[in-house]
Amino acid sequence: MSLLNQLIAAVFAVLIGLVSGTLYIMSDSSKEMLIHQLESHGQDTATHLGLYLAPYIAAEDKAAIETTVNAIFDSGFYQKIEITNSTGDTLFVSTNTSIAPESVPKWFLTLVQFTPPSMEREISYQWRKVGKVSVQSRAGYAYEQLWKGTEKTLIWFISLSLIAVFSLSYLLRRILRPLKGVAEQATALSERKYIEQKHIPKTVELKLVVEAMNRMVQRVQRMFDEQARHIEELRKTAYLDNLTGLANQRSTHAQLCDWLDYRKEFGHGTCIYLHIPNLQALNDTQGEEAANNFLKYAAKQLADLSAQYQPAIIGRLSGSDFLALIPESNEEIVKREVSKLNESLITLANFEKISPNELATHIAIIQTDLNTSAAQLLSEARLLIKQAIAEKRDIQYPVEFTGSKITSTSWQEHVASAINNKQVFLQFQKVISTHDEQPLQHELLARILNRDNNPCSAAEFIQVVKELGLIDALDKAVLERAIEYLTHNTTCPPLTVNLSQQAIQTDDFEKWIKSQLSKHNLRGRLNIEINETAILNDINNIVTFRDLLKQNGIGFGVDNFGIHPSGFSYLYAVQPDYIKIDGSLCQEIDQSDEDCFFIRSLITAAHSLGIKTYAERIERKSQAERLKQLNIDGTQGFLHGKPEALV
Question: Which residues span the membrane (predicted)?
Fold first, then answer.
Protein backbone atom coordinates (compact mmCIF):
# COMPACT_ATOMS: atom_id res chain seq x y z
CA MET A 1 0.00 0.00 0.00
CA SER A 2 1.29 3.45 -0.87
CA LEU A 3 2.18 6.01 1.79
CA LEU A 4 -0.75 8.18 0.68
CA ASN A 5 -3.26 5.35 1.08
CA GLN A 6 -1.77 4.43 4.44
CA LEU A 7 -2.18 8.00 5.69
CA ILE A 8 -5.77 8.15 4.46
CA ALA A 9 -6.52 4.79 6.08
CA ALA A 10 -4.93 5.93 9.35
CA VAL A 11 -6.91 9.17 9.41
CA PHE A 12 -10.09 7.31 8.54
CA ALA A 13 -9.42 4.80 11.33
CA VAL A 14 -8.97 7.67 13.80
CA LEU A 15 -12.24 9.20 12.59
CA ILE A 16 -14.05 5.89 13.06
CA GLY A 17 -12.62 5.57 16.54
CA LEU A 18 -13.59 9.14 17.36
CA VAL A 19 -17.13 8.75 16.07
CA SER A 20 -17.51 5.35 17.75
CA GLY A 21 -16.53 6.88 21.07
CA THR A 22 -18.86 9.80 20.49
CA LEU A 23 -21.69 7.44 19.62
CA TYR A 24 -21.04 5.40 22.74
CA ILE A 25 -21.01 8.44 25.01
CA MET A 26 -24.06 9.85 23.30
CA SER A 27 -25.90 6.53 23.53
CA ASP A 28 -25.01 6.12 27.19
CA SER A 29 -26.26 9.62 28.00
CA SER A 30 -29.38 9.08 25.96
CA LYS A 31 -29.92 5.74 27.65
CA GLU A 32 -29.80 7.32 31.13
CA MET A 33 -32.10 10.10 30.06
CA LEU A 34 -34.58 7.64 28.57
CA ILE A 35 -34.49 5.50 31.72
CA HIS A 36 -35.29 8.58 33.80
CA GLN A 37 -38.15 9.34 31.42
CA LEU A 38 -39.46 5.80 31.83
CA GLU A 39 -39.20 6.09 35.60
CA SER A 40 -41.11 9.37 35.58
CA HIS A 41 -43.66 7.97 33.17
CA GLY A 42 -44.19 4.87 35.31
CA GLN A 43 -44.40 6.88 38.53
CA ASP A 44 -46.95 9.30 37.07
CA THR A 45 -49.09 6.46 35.78
CA ALA A 46 -48.93 4.65 39.10
CA THR A 47 -50.00 7.83 40.95
CA HIS A 48 -52.91 8.55 38.64
CA LEU A 49 -54.12 4.95 38.71
CA GLY A 50 -53.83 4.83 42.49
CA LEU A 51 -55.99 7.92 42.92
CA TYR A 52 -58.60 6.72 40.48
CA LEU A 53 -58.73 3.06 41.55
CA ALA A 54 -58.58 3.58 45.35
CA PRO A 55 -62.32 2.93 46.01
CA TYR A 56 -62.39 -0.01 43.62
CA ILE A 57 -59.32 -1.55 45.19
CA ALA A 58 -60.84 -1.09 48.65
CA ALA A 59 -63.96 -2.83 47.42
CA GLU A 60 -61.85 -5.32 45.45
CA ASP A 61 -63.99 -4.64 42.37
CA LYS A 62 -61.90 -6.57 39.89
CA ALA A 63 -64.12 -5.80 36.92
CA ALA A 64 -63.75 -2.05 37.36
CA ILE A 65 -60.05 -2.42 37.99
CA GLU A 66 -59.57 -4.53 34.83
CA THR A 67 -61.55 -2.16 32.69
CA THR A 68 -59.60 0.84 33.87
CA VAL A 69 -56.17 -0.82 33.59
CA ASN A 70 -56.86 -2.22 30.12
CA ALA A 71 -57.90 1.20 28.89
CA ILE A 72 -54.49 2.55 29.88
CA PHE A 73 -52.49 -0.54 28.99
CA ASP A 74 -53.79 -0.68 25.41
CA SER A 75 -51.85 2.49 24.61
CA GLY A 76 -48.73 0.24 24.24
CA PHE A 77 -46.49 2.31 26.49
CA TYR A 78 -46.42 -0.19 29.34
CA GLN A 79 -44.65 -3.47 29.91
CA LYS A 80 -46.56 -4.49 33.06
CA ILE A 81 -49.27 -3.08 35.36
CA GLU A 82 -50.12 -4.96 38.53
CA ILE A 83 -52.76 -4.17 41.18
CA THR A 84 -52.48 -5.83 44.61
CA ASN A 85 -54.60 -5.52 47.78
CA SER A 86 -53.40 -4.68 51.29
CA THR A 87 -52.42 -8.27 51.97
CA GLY A 88 -50.30 -8.47 48.79
CA ASP A 89 -52.69 -10.58 46.75
CA THR A 90 -52.91 -9.70 43.08
CA LEU A 91 -56.21 -8.25 42.07
CA PHE A 92 -55.25 -7.75 38.39
CA VAL A 93 -52.11 -7.89 36.29
CA SER A 94 -51.52 -7.10 32.62
CA THR A 95 -48.24 -7.73 30.76
CA ASN A 96 -46.83 -7.13 27.26
CA THR A 97 -44.35 -9.73 25.88
CA SER A 98 -43.14 -7.46 23.05
CA ILE A 99 -39.94 -5.66 24.06
CA ALA A 100 -39.19 -3.44 21.05
CA PRO A 101 -40.79 -2.47 17.71
CA GLU A 102 -39.82 -4.27 14.50
CA SER A 103 -38.16 -1.13 13.09
CA VAL A 104 -35.26 -1.57 15.52
CA PRO A 105 -32.59 -4.09 14.32
CA LYS A 106 -32.01 -7.13 16.50
CA TRP A 107 -28.26 -6.45 16.69
CA PHE A 108 -29.07 -3.08 18.22
CA LEU A 109 -31.29 -4.74 20.82
CA THR A 110 -28.40 -7.04 21.70
CA LEU A 111 -25.90 -4.20 21.81
CA VAL A 112 -28.08 -1.87 23.91
CA GLN A 113 -30.22 -3.39 26.65
CA PHE A 114 -32.93 -1.51 28.57
CA THR A 115 -34.51 -2.76 31.82
CA PRO A 116 -37.21 -0.22 32.73
CA PRO A 117 -37.71 0.08 36.48
CA SER A 118 -41.00 -0.97 38.06
CA MET A 119 -42.54 2.03 39.84
CA GLU A 120 -44.92 1.45 42.79
CA ARG A 121 -47.50 3.57 44.53
CA GLU A 122 -49.18 2.82 47.87
CA ILE A 123 -52.96 3.33 47.70
CA SER A 124 -54.94 4.67 50.66
CA TYR A 125 -58.67 5.04 50.94
CA GLN A 126 -60.43 6.74 53.86
CA TRP A 127 -57.19 6.99 55.75
CA ARG A 128 -56.34 3.37 55.51
CA LYS A 129 -54.00 1.42 53.25
CA VAL A 130 -55.97 -0.68 50.76
CA GLY A 131 -53.34 -1.83 48.22
CA LYS A 132 -50.57 -1.03 45.82
CA VAL A 133 -50.15 -0.16 42.11
CA SER A 134 -46.99 -1.34 40.29
CA VAL A 135 -46.26 0.12 36.81
CA GLN A 136 -43.33 -0.83 34.48
CA SER A 137 -43.01 1.25 31.33
CA ARG A 138 -42.35 -0.57 28.05
CA ALA A 139 -38.69 -0.45 26.77
CA GLY A 140 -39.78 -0.33 23.10
CA TYR A 141 -40.25 3.41 23.25
CA ALA A 142 -36.69 3.87 24.52
CA TYR A 143 -35.28 1.52 21.91
CA GLU A 144 -37.13 3.27 19.13
CA GLN A 145 -36.04 6.75 20.20
CA LEU A 146 -32.44 5.68 20.72
CA TRP A 147 -32.30 3.87 17.36
CA LYS A 148 -33.68 6.87 15.48
CA GLY A 149 -31.01 9.08 17.00
CA THR A 150 -28.28 6.57 16.27
CA GLU A 151 -29.45 6.00 12.69
CA LYS A 152 -29.52 9.71 11.98
CA THR A 153 -26.05 10.12 13.45
CA LEU A 154 -24.68 7.23 11.37
CA ILE A 155 -26.09 8.67 8.15
CA TRP A 156 -24.52 12.03 8.84
CA PHE A 157 -21.26 10.39 9.82
CA ILE A 158 -21.04 8.32 6.65
CA SER A 159 -21.89 11.31 4.46
CA LEU A 160 -19.42 13.61 6.17
CA SER A 161 -16.79 10.86 6.25
CA LEU A 162 -16.98 10.37 2.47
CA ILE A 163 -16.65 14.11 1.94
CA ALA A 164 -13.77 14.19 4.41
CA VAL A 165 -12.00 11.23 2.78
CA PHE A 166 -12.18 12.76 -0.70
CA SER A 167 -11.07 16.14 0.59
CA LEU A 168 -8.31 14.59 2.65
CA SER A 169 -7.19 12.46 -0.28
CA TYR A 170 -6.96 15.53 -2.51
CA LEU A 171 -5.06 17.54 0.10
CA LEU A 172 -2.67 14.72 0.93
CA ARG A 173 -2.01 14.01 -2.74
CA ARG A 174 -1.24 17.66 -3.28
CA ILE A 175 0.99 17.87 -0.22
CA LEU A 176 2.80 14.59 -0.90
CA ARG A 177 3.15 15.10 -4.66
CA PRO A 178 6.90 15.77 -4.27
CA LEU A 179 7.31 12.33 -2.65
CA LYS A 180 5.73 10.75 -5.71
CA GLY A 181 8.27 12.64 -7.79
CA VAL A 182 11.07 11.29 -5.57
CA ALA A 183 9.78 7.74 -6.11
CA GLU A 184 9.73 8.34 -9.87
CA GLN A 185 13.28 9.68 -9.67
CA ALA A 186 14.43 6.57 -7.80
CA THR A 187 12.72 4.28 -10.33
CA ALA A 188 14.19 6.24 -13.24
CA LEU A 189 17.63 6.13 -11.63
CA SER A 190 17.43 2.34 -11.42
CA GLU A 191 16.65 2.35 -15.16
CA ARG A 192 19.63 4.65 -15.89
CA LYS A 193 17.45 7.72 -16.47
CA TYR A 194 18.19 11.03 -14.80
CA ILE A 195 15.19 13.16 -13.83
CA GLU A 196 15.26 16.30 -11.72
CA GLN A 197 12.22 17.79 -9.99
CA LYS A 198 11.77 21.40 -11.05
CA HIS A 199 9.08 22.20 -8.48
CA ILE A 200 10.53 22.49 -4.97
CA PRO A 201 7.87 22.13 -2.22
CA LYS A 202 7.57 24.74 0.54
CA THR A 203 7.16 22.15 3.30
CA VAL A 204 10.54 22.06 5.03
CA GLU A 205 10.90 18.29 5.34
CA LEU A 206 9.74 17.59 1.80
CA LYS A 207 11.93 20.38 0.45
CA LEU A 208 14.99 18.78 2.04
CA VAL A 209 14.12 15.36 0.59
CA VAL A 210 13.53 16.70 -2.94
CA GLU A 211 16.69 18.80 -2.96
CA ALA A 212 18.76 15.88 -1.65
CA MET A 213 17.36 13.60 -4.37
CA ASN A 214 18.05 16.18 -7.06
CA ARG A 215 21.64 16.51 -5.86
CA MET A 216 22.09 12.75 -5.93
CA VAL A 217 20.71 12.50 -9.48
CA GLN A 218 23.00 15.31 -10.62
CA ARG A 219 25.98 13.68 -8.95
CA VAL A 220 25.32 10.25 -10.50
CA GLN A 221 24.80 11.76 -13.94
CA ARG A 222 27.91 13.87 -13.60
CA MET A 223 29.93 10.82 -12.55
CA PHE A 224 28.85 8.86 -15.61
CA ASP A 225 29.35 11.85 -17.92
CA GLU A 226 32.86 12.31 -16.62
CA GLN A 227 33.54 8.61 -16.97
CA ALA A 228 32.14 8.64 -20.51
CA ARG A 229 34.26 11.66 -21.44
CA HIS A 230 37.34 10.01 -20.02
CA ILE A 231 36.72 6.83 -22.02
CA GLU A 232 35.92 8.84 -25.13
CA GLU A 233 39.17 10.79 -24.83
CA LEU A 234 41.02 7.51 -24.34
CA ARG A 235 39.32 6.04 -27.42
CA LYS A 236 40.22 9.06 -29.52
CA THR A 237 43.81 8.88 -28.36
CA ALA A 238 44.12 5.16 -28.98
CA TYR A 239 42.01 4.61 -32.10
CA LEU A 240 41.32 7.91 -33.87
CA ASP A 241 43.42 10.23 -35.95
CA ASN A 242 43.72 13.58 -34.18
CA LEU A 243 43.51 15.70 -37.30
CA THR A 244 40.76 14.08 -39.39
CA GLY A 245 38.75 12.20 -36.74
CA LEU A 246 38.93 9.00 -38.81
CA ALA A 247 40.17 5.68 -37.48
CA ASN A 248 43.97 5.69 -37.15
CA GLN A 249 46.30 3.16 -38.73
CA ARG A 250 46.08 0.72 -35.83
CA SER A 251 42.29 0.79 -35.66
CA THR A 252 41.84 0.62 -39.45
CA HIS A 253 44.14 -2.37 -39.75
CA ALA A 254 42.33 -4.12 -36.87
CA GLN A 255 38.94 -3.58 -38.55
CA LEU A 256 40.24 -4.85 -41.88
CA CYS A 257 41.61 -7.99 -40.25
CA ASP A 258 38.38 -8.49 -38.36
CA TRP A 259 36.15 -8.21 -41.44
CA LEU A 260 38.34 -9.84 -44.07
CA ASP A 261 40.39 -12.41 -42.13
CA TYR A 262 38.08 -13.38 -39.27
CA ARG A 263 34.47 -12.85 -40.28
CA LYS A 264 34.99 -13.45 -44.00
CA GLU A 265 31.53 -12.00 -44.50
CA PHE A 266 32.35 -8.77 -46.31
CA GLY A 267 32.08 -10.41 -49.71
CA HIS A 268 32.41 -8.49 -52.96
CA GLY A 269 33.30 -4.88 -52.38
CA THR A 270 35.60 -2.05 -53.35
CA CYS A 271 38.56 -0.51 -51.57
CA ILE A 272 39.30 3.16 -52.32
CA TYR A 273 42.91 3.98 -51.45
CA LEU A 274 43.67 7.73 -51.44
CA HIS A 275 47.29 8.93 -51.48
CA ILE A 276 48.45 12.56 -51.20
CA PRO A 277 51.96 12.83 -52.70
CA ASN A 278 54.62 15.22 -51.49
CA LEU A 279 52.85 16.00 -48.21
CA GLN A 280 56.00 17.51 -46.78
CA ALA A 281 56.42 19.77 -49.82
CA LEU A 282 52.79 20.79 -49.42
CA ASN A 283 53.51 21.79 -45.83
CA ASP A 284 56.57 23.75 -46.89
CA THR A 285 54.97 25.63 -49.77
CA GLN A 286 51.42 26.19 -48.54
CA GLY A 287 51.93 26.14 -44.82
CA GLU A 288 50.83 23.66 -42.20
CA GLU A 289 47.32 25.10 -41.85
CA ALA A 290 46.57 24.87 -45.58
CA ALA A 291 47.97 21.35 -45.73
CA ASN A 292 45.90 20.28 -42.73
CA ASN A 293 42.76 21.80 -44.22
CA PHE A 294 43.33 19.84 -47.43
CA LEU A 295 43.83 16.61 -45.45
CA LYS A 296 40.65 17.21 -43.47
CA TYR A 297 38.70 18.00 -46.62
CA ALA A 298 39.94 14.82 -48.32
CA ALA A 299 39.00 12.79 -45.22
CA LYS A 300 35.52 14.32 -45.11
CA GLN A 301 34.85 13.64 -48.78
CA LEU A 302 35.93 10.03 -48.36
CA ALA A 303 33.83 9.69 -45.20
CA ASP A 304 30.75 11.12 -46.96
CA LEU A 305 31.19 8.63 -49.78
CA SER A 306 31.51 5.72 -47.32
CA ALA A 307 28.50 6.84 -45.28
CA GLN A 308 26.25 5.82 -48.17
CA TYR A 309 27.19 2.18 -47.65
CA GLN A 310 26.99 -0.09 -44.61
CA PRO A 311 29.02 -1.77 -43.35
CA ALA A 312 32.01 0.32 -44.32
CA ILE A 313 35.54 0.79 -43.02
CA ILE A 314 37.28 4.14 -43.32
CA GLY A 315 40.54 5.30 -41.81
CA ARG A 316 43.87 7.08 -42.17
CA LEU A 317 46.75 4.68 -42.64
CA SER A 318 49.54 7.25 -42.55
CA GLY A 319 50.07 10.98 -42.90
CA SER A 320 49.32 10.91 -46.62
CA ASP A 321 47.27 7.69 -47.07
CA PHE A 322 43.53 7.11 -46.54
CA LEU A 323 41.45 3.99 -47.09
CA ALA A 324 37.75 3.26 -47.45
CA LEU A 325 36.26 -0.21 -47.90
CA ILE A 326 32.65 -0.26 -49.07
CA PRO A 327 30.30 -3.15 -49.98
CA GLU A 328 29.82 -2.04 -53.56
CA SER A 329 31.36 -3.75 -56.62
CA ASN A 330 29.26 -2.39 -59.48
CA GLU A 331 31.70 -0.87 -61.95
CA GLU A 332 29.50 2.03 -63.03
CA ILE A 333 28.59 3.04 -59.48
CA VAL A 334 32.17 2.81 -58.25
CA LYS A 335 33.57 4.82 -61.13
CA ARG A 336 30.91 7.49 -60.73
CA GLU A 337 31.51 7.88 -56.98
CA VAL A 338 35.30 7.88 -57.33
CA SER A 339 35.16 10.43 -60.16
CA LYS A 340 33.04 12.76 -57.99
CA LEU A 341 35.55 12.34 -55.16
CA ASN A 342 38.50 13.07 -57.43
CA GLU A 343 36.82 16.12 -58.98
CA SER A 344 36.06 17.62 -55.59
CA LEU A 345 39.71 17.19 -54.54
CA ILE A 346 41.00 18.69 -57.81
CA THR A 347 38.66 21.66 -57.40
CA LEU A 348 39.94 22.38 -53.91
CA ALA A 349 43.56 21.90 -54.96
CA ASN A 350 43.15 24.35 -57.85
CA PHE A 351 41.37 26.84 -55.61
CA GLU A 352 44.12 26.67 -53.02
CA LYS A 353 46.81 26.56 -55.76
CA ILE A 354 48.18 23.33 -54.34
CA SER A 355 50.74 21.52 -56.51
CA PRO A 356 49.86 23.28 -59.76
CA ASN A 357 52.49 21.32 -61.72
CA GLU A 358 51.54 17.83 -60.50
CA LEU A 359 48.57 15.84 -59.25
CA ALA A 360 47.39 16.63 -55.72
CA THR A 361 46.07 13.11 -55.08
CA HIS A 362 46.27 9.57 -56.42
CA ILE A 363 43.39 7.14 -55.99
CA ALA A 364 43.69 3.38 -56.36
CA ILE A 365 40.67 1.10 -56.73
CA ILE A 366 40.87 -2.51 -55.54
CA GLN A 367 38.08 -5.06 -55.70
CA THR A 368 37.55 -7.62 -52.93
CA ASP A 369 35.89 -11.02 -52.88
CA LEU A 370 35.32 -13.78 -50.34
CA ASN A 371 39.00 -14.79 -50.36
CA THR A 372 40.61 -11.35 -50.09
CA SER A 373 42.72 -10.92 -46.94
CA ALA A 374 43.65 -7.65 -45.22
CA ALA A 375 47.33 -8.05 -46.08
CA GLN A 376 46.53 -8.82 -49.73
CA LEU A 377 44.24 -5.82 -49.98
CA LEU A 378 46.83 -3.38 -48.62
CA SER A 379 49.57 -4.87 -50.78
CA GLU A 380 47.53 -4.53 -53.98
CA ALA A 381 46.51 -0.99 -53.07
CA ARG A 382 50.06 0.17 -52.52
CA LEU A 383 51.21 -1.40 -55.80
CA LEU A 384 48.47 0.42 -57.70
CA ILE A 385 49.41 3.70 -56.01
CA LYS A 386 53.00 3.24 -57.15
CA GLN A 387 51.73 2.65 -60.69
CA ALA A 388 49.56 5.74 -60.50
CA ILE A 389 52.51 7.84 -59.34
CA ALA A 390 54.75 6.43 -62.05
CA GLU A 391 52.16 6.94 -64.77
CA LYS A 392 50.97 10.25 -63.30
CA ARG A 393 47.36 9.03 -63.13
CA ASP A 394 44.89 10.53 -60.70
CA ILE A 395 42.79 7.30 -60.64
CA GLN A 396 44.29 3.85 -61.07
CA TYR A 397 41.86 1.01 -61.76
CA PRO A 398 42.90 -2.65 -61.69
CA VAL A 399 43.34 -4.42 -64.98
CA GLU A 400 40.51 -6.86 -64.26
CA PHE A 401 38.05 -4.12 -63.30
CA THR A 402 35.59 -4.93 -66.08
CA GLY A 403 32.36 -5.32 -64.20
CA SER A 404 32.54 -9.11 -64.21
CA LYS A 405 31.87 -9.19 -60.46
CA ILE A 406 28.38 -7.78 -60.81
CA THR A 407 25.94 -10.29 -59.40
CA SER A 408 24.44 -12.56 -62.02
CA THR A 409 20.71 -12.50 -62.63
CA SER A 410 20.39 -16.22 -61.95
CA TRP A 411 21.97 -15.85 -58.51
CA GLN A 412 19.71 -12.91 -57.71
CA GLU A 413 16.69 -14.99 -58.65
CA HIS A 414 17.93 -17.89 -56.52
CA VAL A 415 18.47 -15.66 -53.48
CA ALA A 416 15.09 -13.93 -53.93
CA SER A 417 13.33 -17.28 -54.21
CA ALA A 418 15.02 -18.61 -51.05
CA ILE A 419 14.11 -15.52 -49.02
CA ASN A 420 10.53 -15.25 -50.26
CA ASN A 421 9.93 -18.96 -49.59
CA LYS A 422 11.59 -18.62 -46.16
CA GLN A 423 14.14 -21.29 -47.04
CA VAL A 424 16.58 -19.97 -44.45
CA PHE A 425 19.15 -22.22 -42.84
CA LEU A 426 20.22 -21.17 -39.33
CA GLN A 427 23.48 -21.70 -37.52
CA PHE A 428 24.39 -20.48 -34.05
CA GLN A 429 27.47 -19.44 -32.13
CA LYS A 430 27.62 -19.64 -28.35
CA VAL A 431 28.21 -16.80 -25.92
CA ILE A 432 29.92 -18.38 -22.91
CA SER A 433 29.82 -16.97 -19.39
CA THR A 434 33.24 -16.12 -17.95
CA HIS A 435 31.96 -16.95 -14.46
CA ASP A 436 30.69 -20.52 -14.82
CA GLU A 437 31.51 -21.29 -18.49
CA GLN A 438 27.86 -21.98 -19.24
CA PRO A 439 26.18 -20.76 -22.47
CA LEU A 440 24.44 -17.43 -21.97
CA GLN A 441 22.87 -17.28 -25.43
CA HIS A 442 23.07 -18.67 -28.95
CA GLU A 443 23.55 -15.99 -31.59
CA LEU A 444 21.88 -17.00 -34.84
CA LEU A 445 23.64 -16.74 -38.19
CA ALA A 446 21.46 -16.69 -41.30
CA ARG A 447 22.43 -18.92 -44.21
CA ILE A 448 20.75 -20.02 -47.43
CA LEU A 449 21.54 -23.02 -49.60
CA ASN A 450 23.36 -22.27 -52.84
CA ARG A 451 22.48 -23.84 -56.18
CA ASP A 452 24.51 -26.91 -55.21
CA ASN A 453 22.35 -27.24 -52.08
CA ASN A 454 25.21 -26.33 -49.74
CA PRO A 455 25.02 -23.62 -47.06
CA CYS A 456 26.75 -20.43 -48.17
CA SER A 457 28.04 -17.63 -45.97
CA ALA A 458 26.27 -14.33 -45.54
CA ALA A 459 28.93 -12.59 -47.63
CA GLU A 460 27.76 -14.53 -50.68
CA PHE A 461 24.16 -13.35 -50.56
CA ILE A 462 23.69 -10.45 -48.13
CA GLN A 463 24.59 -7.77 -50.68
CA VAL A 464 22.14 -9.28 -53.14
CA VAL A 465 19.45 -9.25 -50.45
CA LYS A 466 20.08 -5.54 -49.87
CA GLU A 467 20.06 -4.77 -53.61
CA LEU A 468 16.72 -6.53 -54.01
CA GLY A 469 15.20 -4.79 -50.97
CA LEU A 470 14.59 -8.09 -49.18
CA ILE A 471 16.52 -7.40 -45.99
CA ASP A 472 13.35 -7.01 -43.91
CA ALA A 473 11.94 -10.22 -45.42
CA LEU A 474 15.15 -12.03 -44.40
CA ASP A 475 14.95 -10.65 -40.87
CA LYS A 476 11.31 -11.77 -40.56
CA ALA A 477 12.16 -15.24 -41.84
CA VAL A 478 14.97 -15.61 -39.29
CA LEU A 479 12.73 -14.37 -36.46
CA GLU A 480 9.95 -16.76 -37.42
CA ARG A 481 12.35 -19.70 -37.49
CA ALA A 482 13.79 -18.68 -34.12
CA ILE A 483 10.32 -18.37 -32.53
CA GLU A 484 9.27 -21.71 -34.01
CA TYR A 485 12.38 -23.34 -32.58
CA LEU A 486 11.81 -21.85 -29.12
CA THR A 487 8.21 -23.09 -29.00
CA HIS A 488 9.43 -26.67 -29.42
CA ASN A 489 12.62 -26.39 -27.34
CA THR A 490 11.86 -24.92 -23.95
CA THR A 491 15.19 -25.74 -22.27
CA CYS A 492 17.65 -24.25 -24.73
CA PRO A 493 19.58 -21.04 -23.94
CA PRO A 494 18.06 -17.78 -25.25
CA LEU A 495 18.37 -17.26 -28.99
CA THR A 496 19.76 -13.99 -30.33
CA VAL A 497 18.63 -12.52 -33.66
CA ASN A 498 20.41 -9.65 -35.40
CA LEU A 499 18.05 -7.17 -37.03
CA SER A 500 18.90 -4.58 -39.66
CA GLN A 501 18.05 -0.90 -39.57
CA GLN A 502 16.02 -1.31 -42.75
CA ALA A 503 13.72 -3.86 -41.11
CA ILE A 504 12.96 -1.64 -38.12
CA GLN A 505 12.23 1.32 -40.37
CA THR A 506 9.70 -0.69 -42.38
CA ASP A 507 6.18 0.61 -41.76
CA ASP A 508 4.56 -2.71 -40.87
CA PHE A 509 7.48 -4.27 -38.98
CA GLU A 510 6.44 -3.04 -35.52
CA LYS A 511 2.89 -4.30 -36.04
CA TRP A 512 4.22 -7.62 -37.34
CA ILE A 513 6.57 -8.23 -34.41
CA LYS A 514 3.83 -7.25 -31.91
CA SER A 515 1.67 -9.93 -33.47
CA GLN A 516 4.43 -12.51 -33.23
CA LEU A 517 5.24 -11.73 -29.61
CA SER A 518 1.57 -11.77 -28.57
CA LYS A 519 1.18 -15.35 -29.81
CA HIS A 520 4.07 -16.82 -27.81
CA ASN A 521 5.51 -16.46 -24.33
CA LEU A 522 9.15 -15.65 -25.09
CA ARG A 523 10.10 -13.78 -21.92
CA GLY A 524 13.77 -14.31 -21.17
CA ARG A 525 14.18 -16.66 -24.14
CA LEU A 526 14.76 -14.30 -27.07
CA ASN A 527 17.23 -11.47 -27.62
CA ILE A 528 17.32 -8.86 -30.38
CA GLU A 529 20.62 -7.28 -31.43
CA ILE A 530 21.15 -4.19 -33.56
CA ASN A 531 24.42 -2.85 -34.91
CA GLU A 532 25.77 0.21 -33.09
CA THR A 533 25.92 2.23 -36.31
CA ALA A 534 22.28 1.42 -37.11
CA ILE A 535 21.26 2.54 -33.60
CA LEU A 536 23.05 5.88 -33.90
CA ASN A 537 21.55 6.49 -37.35
CA ASP A 538 17.97 6.17 -36.07
CA ILE A 539 18.05 6.44 -32.30
CA ASN A 540 14.44 7.67 -31.85
CA ASN A 541 12.93 4.64 -33.59
CA ILE A 542 15.34 2.37 -31.74
CA VAL A 543 14.21 3.74 -28.36
CA THR A 544 10.57 3.07 -29.26
CA PHE A 545 11.45 -0.41 -30.49
CA ARG A 546 13.43 -1.07 -27.31
CA ASP A 547 10.42 -0.14 -25.16
CA LEU A 548 8.27 -2.59 -27.14
CA LEU A 549 10.77 -5.40 -26.51
CA LYS A 550 11.04 -4.55 -22.82
CA GLN A 551 7.27 -4.72 -22.37
CA ASN A 552 7.32 -8.25 -23.78
CA GLY A 553 10.36 -9.45 -21.81
CA ILE A 554 12.64 -9.64 -24.87
CA GLY A 555 16.33 -8.88 -24.32
CA PHE A 556 18.05 -6.14 -26.31
CA GLY A 557 21.74 -5.85 -27.16
CA VAL A 558 24.11 -3.57 -29.08
CA ASP A 559 26.32 -5.37 -31.59
CA ASN A 560 29.79 -4.16 -32.71
CA PHE A 561 29.96 -1.79 -29.76
CA GLY A 562 32.78 0.71 -29.31
CA ILE A 563 33.96 1.58 -32.81
CA HIS A 564 31.55 4.31 -33.90
CA PRO A 565 33.12 7.80 -33.68
CA SER A 566 30.02 9.25 -31.98
CA GLY A 567 30.85 7.62 -28.67
CA PHE A 568 28.36 5.78 -26.47
CA SER A 569 26.34 8.40 -24.61
CA TYR A 570 23.33 6.94 -26.45
CA LEU A 571 23.29 4.14 -23.85
CA TYR A 572 21.30 6.53 -21.60
CA ALA A 573 18.39 6.60 -24.02
CA VAL A 574 18.52 3.04 -25.37
CA GLN A 575 19.24 1.18 -22.10
CA PRO A 576 20.29 -2.15 -23.63
CA ASP A 577 20.49 -5.31 -21.56
CA TYR A 578 23.98 -6.01 -22.87
CA ILE A 579 26.61 -4.82 -25.32
CA LYS A 580 28.96 -6.85 -27.50
CA ILE A 581 32.34 -5.18 -27.78
CA ASP A 582 33.52 -5.26 -31.38
CA GLY A 583 36.05 -7.96 -32.20
CA SER A 584 38.51 -5.45 -33.70
CA LEU A 585 39.01 -3.97 -30.21
CA CYS A 586 39.73 -7.35 -28.66
CA GLN A 587 42.23 -8.78 -31.14
CA GLU A 588 45.29 -7.65 -29.21
CA ILE A 589 43.73 -7.54 -25.75
CA ASP A 590 46.21 -10.13 -24.45
CA GLN A 591 49.20 -8.18 -25.80
CA SER A 592 48.31 -4.49 -25.66
CA ASP A 593 48.06 -2.65 -22.34
CA GLU A 594 46.41 0.23 -24.16
CA ASP A 595 43.61 -2.02 -25.48
CA CYS A 596 43.32 -3.63 -22.08
CA PHE A 597 42.84 -0.29 -20.33
CA PHE A 598 40.28 0.87 -22.89
CA ILE A 599 38.23 -2.35 -22.68
CA ARG A 600 38.35 -2.22 -18.87
CA SER A 601 36.95 1.32 -19.00
CA LEU A 602 34.14 0.23 -21.32
CA ILE A 603 33.24 -2.68 -19.04
CA THR A 604 33.25 -0.46 -15.94
CA ALA A 605 31.08 2.18 -17.60
CA ALA A 606 28.58 -0.42 -18.83
CA HIS A 607 28.39 -2.16 -15.47
CA SER A 608 27.76 1.17 -13.73
CA LEU A 609 24.61 1.40 -15.86
CA GLY A 610 23.57 -2.19 -15.13
CA ILE A 611 24.51 -3.34 -18.66
CA LYS A 612 26.22 -6.69 -19.20
CA THR A 613 29.28 -6.84 -21.46
CA TYR A 614 30.30 -9.55 -23.93
CA ALA A 615 33.32 -9.68 -26.23
CA GLU A 616 33.07 -10.84 -29.85
CA ARG A 617 35.36 -12.96 -32.00
CA ILE A 618 37.61 -14.39 -29.31
CA GLU A 619 40.02 -16.96 -30.76
CA ARG A 620 42.74 -17.44 -28.14
CA LYS A 621 42.52 -18.65 -24.58
CA SER A 622 44.85 -15.84 -23.52
CA GLN A 623 42.28 -13.31 -24.81
CA ALA A 624 39.50 -14.94 -22.77
CA GLU A 625 41.67 -15.06 -19.63
CA ARG A 626 42.58 -11.38 -19.92
CA LEU A 627 38.95 -10.42 -20.48
CA LYS A 628 37.93 -12.47 -17.45
CA GLN A 629 40.42 -10.47 -15.38
CA LEU A 630 38.71 -7.33 -16.66
CA ASN A 631 35.38 -8.66 -15.28
CA ILE A 632 33.67 -9.17 -18.62
CA ASP A 633 30.45 -11.20 -18.44
CA GLY A 634 30.87 -13.42 -21.49
CA THR A 635 32.89 -14.15 -24.61
CA GLN A 636 31.98 -15.33 -28.11
CA GLY A 637 34.18 -16.67 -30.87
CA PHE A 638 35.95 -19.65 -32.42
CA LEU A 639 37.60 -20.33 -29.05
CA HIS A 640 34.26 -21.89 -28.04
CA GLY A 641 33.78 -23.74 -31.33
CA LYS A 642 32.67 -23.08 -34.87
CA PRO A 643 29.06 -22.20 -35.68
CA GLU A 644 26.69 -25.16 -35.41
CA ALA A 645 23.46 -25.90 -37.22
CA LEU A 646 20.27 -25.08 -35.31
CA VAL A 647 18.26 -28.28 -35.55
Answer: 6-26, 154-172
